[in-house]
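Board notes (copied after class):
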Amino acid sequence: MVSSSEFLNYLAYLLPALIAGGIGYYFFKTYVDHQKEMQYLVLRKENRSEVLPLRLQAFERLVLFLERISPGQLLSRVKPVGDDKYDYENLLIASIEQEFEHNLVQQVYVSQKCWDAIKASKNSTISLIRHTNMSDKITNAQKLREVILTDLLEKSSPSDTGIAFVKNEIKHLF
């Protein structure tokens, strides 16, 4: 059986060893955590250098999309095939939807707010075309083109708002 004085002797040797072990563990854990954080930062930097060009390319494609669906560009590119204003309206909207579907994957590289602004610009352009076509003044496809283009002289297109949002988003990258 161990006497109390022997127990205190063992404790006197054991206590400094436990304290030294605890301090060593703390410093080792801090070092390992720091190394993990440094590796994470290096990987993040490498990923950023690889992803940044892809994100910039996505922004470029989205600006191109917005330019292509801008009513002025759209009307000069998509000519009416007949005089029916409803056929021309459907042709314009189909062209916008086709452009949109072609650029759907770009949403992966932009923020949700930016993507929502892109969709809002697209939907506003479609709404502008539909709303203009509902007018009693519009009798044929050519008149629809003229009225939309005339309206654009008075106000900016929805695409301009979307492009401004994309440019602002790009500024936040740098």
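Comment from the instructor: The mean pLDDT is 91. The CA atoms of residues 40 and 46 lie 10 Å apart.
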